[in-house]
Amino acid sequence: MATQHVLAARRLPRTVDHSADMVAVDDFKAAFRNHPAGVSIITAQGPSGPVGLTASSVFSVSANPPTLVFSLSAHSSAAPAIREAGTVVVHLLGADQVDLATTFATGGIDRFEDTSMWSRLVTGEPVLPRASAWLRGRIVSEMNVGDSTVVAVQVLQVKSQSAAHPDAEQARPLVYHNRSWHSLSADSMVM
Amino acid sequence: MATQHVLAARRLPRTVDHSADMVAVDDFKAAFRNHPAGVSIITAQGPSGPVGLTASSVFSVSANPPTLVFSLSAHSSAAPAIREAGTVVVHLLGADQVDLATTFATGGIDRFEDTSMWSRLVTGEPVLPRASAWLRGRIVSEMNVGDSTVVAVQVLQVKSQSAAHPDAEQARPLVYHNRSWHSLSADSMVM
Q: Counting CB atoms within 10 angstroms of each CB, which of A58, A95, B29, B167 has the fewest?
C-alpha cells in the first residue's frame, strides 16, 4: 500500500463532539459483549509468510458486486500483513471448528505450525479447508475508524462445505457471545 | 450532508478484477445466510419524522473512541433519512424483542404507528426502551461499498437494561441465522 488513492468514503463536516468523553468505555464494551456474532478466520499471504486471525466482525455488505467487510484492530499483529497482501481468504466457521477459532485468536504462537490444518490456493493464499465456507477476495477499500480499519473485500471465489457434505451438523454455525462459543440448532430457535 | 469532506478511507490503486463476474451471487448469498449475526434496530429523527430499520450488520469497531459500524443498503427506504439525520440510536435486541425486529424489517407499514413502543430522547431521536441495550451516537464517517454504505458512529451515550433488570432471560440476545430467529443460552454453548 505504498500509494493510495482517496475515495468515496468521507468524514462529515461536523465538529467532534467532546461529550463522547463522558461515555464510559466499559459501558460500551459491556453492551457489545452481549451482542452475538458469527466467527470467521481471515488469512492472507503476507510478505513474510502466511498470516491469519479470528474475527467476529465479518458481514456481507453488498451483493452487487459481492462484497464483505471486516475490521482490523491497530493492535493486531497480523493486520499490516493482511492489508499489504491485498487478497484474503475469509473462512466462516462451524460449531465443530472451535479449535481453529482458538488457534487464530491466540497470541505469541505460530498459528500455522500444524501443517495438516491448512493448504495453499493456487493463487497463493493460505486456506483452512475444514471451514464451513470460505471466500477469497480482493481488498477494494478501507476506512480508518478510531483505532481500527474497516476493510471491504470484493469476493472472487466462494467454496461451501455444505455443497459437498450436506449434513446438518456441519451446517451448524459458530457464534461468539459474552466470551463463550455457542452454536445454533432447532433448539435455539425462538418464536 | 450538503457538504462533505474527503477522508481517511481510500480505494487501493489495483485494477478491478473482472473475474469477480464469475462468482455466482447465489453462492455468495448462500454462504452468508449461514453466517449468524446479532440483531439491531437503528433509528433516527429524519427530516420528515422518525425512521428506523432492522439490521444484522452492527459491530463494535473501536473502543478509543467508542465507535460502531453498520451498513445501509441503497435499497433501504430509511437509509437517506438516517444519513441526513447525523445522529442515530442503535438498539441491540434480546430474544424477547422479535416483535420489534419484525416490525422494523417490514416494508410498506408505518413502523412507528404503535406509540407505546417508542419514546423520544431529549436530543430528539426516537428510542425503543424495551431493547436490551441502546447506544446513541453521531455518524463520523461513511464508505461506499457496492450498493451499500458502511457507516461509522461514534457513541455518545449507552443504556443497558441489564443494569436495571439483571435477570438472565432479558440478557439472552437475539440472533438471525438462515432466515430464522434464534437465541443463546447455557444449552447452546459448545466446548
A: B167
